[in-house]
Amino acid sequence: MVPVPGPDPAVLEAALARELLLLVHHHGDADSVGCAIALAAAFPGARISATDGLSAAGKVMAERLEVEIEARPPASWDGTVVVVDTSNPEHCAPLPECNSVVVIDHHQTAGEWPAGTLLIHEPEAKSTAEIVTRLIPELGIELTPQMALPLLAGVYADTGHFRHASSDSFAVAHTLAAAGGEPRQAMVLLDRVRPQQQRTMFLKAAQRLKFSQEGKWLMATTRTGSFESGTARLMVALGADVALAASGNKKGQVRISSRASSAAIEAGLNLAQLLEALADEQSGSAGGHPGAAGFQAQGDPDALLAMAQQGCVAQLKSLAEGA
C-alpha cells in the first residue's frame, strides 16, 4: 500500500511545539508504549495516556522504565494530541477534544481521523518505532539512550523478535543500538512471568481450540475471555498456519485477534484485509497487518468468529488456486 504523503515539516514542528498529550491505543502494546515513552523523552513535559488499558508487555515496560501512564485521557486538551501506532480513531477512543492532532502509524490502512489531522503513515514500516526513530532526528532532536531503549524494544516486539523484520528494521535497530539502546536490555525489558490469570485463560482457550485443514494449511479457532492476541499467537506457536481467537462481553462487544505463520504470509494471506472487510459488513472496526490483525464490533462472538473463519477459508482456497 502506498503511504499517505507526510505533513508539511513546518506545520508538524509547530504542532509539536505545543503542549503534548501522547495517546496509545487500546491495550497498548510494546510498540505503542515504547514510542510514547521515547517521544515523552524527546519532548519534556509531554503526558502519556492509555485509552483502554495496556497489554502485559506495555505495562511491564512502563513499570521498569518508571514512566507514568495515565489511565484515561482528559476530555479536552489545549495543546496537540499525538496518537501513536493507531490506524483508526475507534482504537484509541475517546479522543480528547482538541484543535491539533498528529497520528504516527504503520498499519495497512488509515482510518477517518478528524479534519486537519497531521498523518504520518508508513505502512511499509514493520513497527511504528521505526518511524519515530527516523522522525526524532528529522526534528533536530538527538536520540538519547532514554529514547533508544524503548524504541528498540518496540521494534523487537512488533517484528516478532525480528522474524518479520525488513532490512530497514535492522538498520533502525543498528541506529538505536548506536544511540545507546542496549539490545540485551531491550529484550530483558519485555521479559515477564505471565500472571496465573493469563496462563489459566490460555489453557482454557486451548481446551476450546478447534482446528481444520484447508489444503496444506492448518487453521485454528477458539473462544477466550480475554488475552485474544496472546492466545492467537500461541496457537500459531502450536503449529497453526492461521489462528483466530474471539472474546465477547455482556455489553455485546466482540474482539477477534488473528495471527498467521510466516509461510501463510509469504503465500499471500492478508488477515488485515480479511478483517477490514468483515468490519465493513458488521459496522465494526479493524486494522493490522497481513500476518496479525484485530477486529471489534457488536454482536455474537461465535457468529462473528465463524464469519472470520469463512473469510480465511476463502482466502486460503484462492491461494491454492493461484499456486
Automatic annotation (TrEMBL):
<dbReference type="InterPro" id="IPR051319">
    <property type="entry name" value="Oligoribo/pAp-PDE_c-di-AMP_PDE"/>
</dbReference>
<dbReference type="Pfam" id="PF01368">
    <property type="entry name" value="DHH"/>
</dbReference>
<feature type="domain" description="DHHA1">
    <location>
        <begin position="239"/>
        <end position="304"/>
    </location>
</feature>
<feature type="domain" description="DDH">
    <location>
        <begin position="24"/>
        <end position="154"/>
    </location>
</feature>
<dbReference type="InterPro" id="IPR001667">
    <property type="entry name" value="DDH_dom"/>
</dbReference>
<dbReference type="Pfam" id="PF02272">
    <property type="entry name" value="DHHA1"/>
</dbReference>
<dbReference type="InterPro" id="IPR003156">
    <property type="entry name" value="DHHA1_dom"/>
</dbReference>
<protein>
    <submittedName>
        <fullName>Phosphoesterase</fullName>
    </submittedName>
</protein>
<dbReference type="GO" id="GO:0003676">
    <property type="term" value="F:nucleic acid binding"/>
</dbReference>
<dbReference type="InterPro" id="IPR038763">
    <property type="entry name" value="DHH_sf"/>
</dbReference>
